[in-house]
Amino acid sequence: MQQIINFIIRNKNFLLFLLLFSISILFTIQSHSYHRSKFINSANFLSGGIYNSAHKISTYFNLKSQNQLLFEENKRLKSLLYNLENTGHFTYSDSLLLNKSYYFSNAQVIKNSYSATDNVLLINKGTNDSIQQDFGVITTKGIVGIVDKTSGNFANVISILNSTSSISAQLKKTSHYGSLTWDAKNPALVQLKDIPKIAKVLVGDTIVTSGQSSIFPKDIPIGVIENYNLDAAENYYEINVALFNDMTNLEYVYIIKNTNKPEITNLLNE
Amino acid sequence: MNNIFSVDSIRFIVLVLIQVLVCNNINFFGYINPYPYILFIALFPVKSNRVVFILASFLLGLTNDMFLDSGGIHAAACVFIAYVRPVILKFSFGTIYEHHTIKFASIAFGSKLTYITLLVTLHHIILFSLQVFSVSKIIFVLQKTLFSSMFTILLSMIITIIFSQKPK
Description:
The complex is a heterodimer.
Chain A: H1 2-10, H2 12-31, H3 45-58, H4 63-82, E1 102-111, E2 118-123, E3 136-138, E4 143-150, E5 155-162, E6 167-171, E7 177-181, E8 189-196, E9 206-209, E10 221-230, E11 236-243, E12 252-258, H5 261-269
Chain B: H1 2-21, H2 39-42, H3 50-68, H4 73-93, H5 95-98, H6 109-132, H7 138-162
């Protein structure tokens, strides 16, 4: 017994090192598995608060370009509104009557990241604004990611620029679908895999979300095909997709809640 | 003793804030960021208790992980270089280290460069191999390590030169 205690005292530095090192490796391994991740995350009072106050200052620097983006979106929505076939008969006074299956709320990105292999964003809405795990996040131009951990006022978003993220996407023209992943090399290019060889793929074709995941609605734009080749087994295409979104200057995002989701997951689990 | 402790705590907070708010947003060539926060580990008093030192380094790494949402990669790299620091000190400074009389402000440029280079390279290799977490992408890991190390070493040397008190 004496010897064991002596051994521990003699090697206390090494044992402490071993303990702390294994704890950190454990955290690392957890963070590499999707959605069981992040015991330590930035959606908390301290880091969220610091990022929020820093963002209040830095947000002034790109007001002009963000204004331009909102302006363009307004233009697009206006043209949609006035070109509807039965114009002039909007008499909805209560939004509940619309019986929407997707609810949108807006948020601001207060921490962006695109240089690591597993990028996670931080937005300034949380459970107090009824944001929950697995809500989709998009901008006016295309998709951004999926909400992961939430706290009262902040939420982490797993970006599409994350090696654990995999989003169902399809060719807009022919509806062949595959999964969207990222090879951690270029923040402007993502990879679409598992598109069958039989599909007609052309450079410049548009890629949209497939609506199969119950997170994103169908037909949200993602990007266009930059180039493509067959995989090693020559059965499926591997396609490089140039994103519509500039993931390096995200500011205003929309969060999508699918109100039918509990029903869909229930049905699938039966 | 009290004075040294407070200097180190202030250095901890300032370096973490610089790292999180400035250095992580540089993204030189798209992905190259310096990590000068490990100066805290490099400049920690040599004479201090090793248990306290390793615990402080773990806390430093974990704080960075919390801000960067990176699991435990910074904590692992920091704990490792904190544990091997005596060996690196002995290698870089030779016999001066044996007598425990190192003053970081007054050592020669060459040995300081060796010391910081070794610490930074070790830290970055562990950091990026855990971040990429795939043996097949070893070239990518080495490439990231090389570029980020150069950036970090340059920045760390500049910071230590600017903020060192001249021996009287």
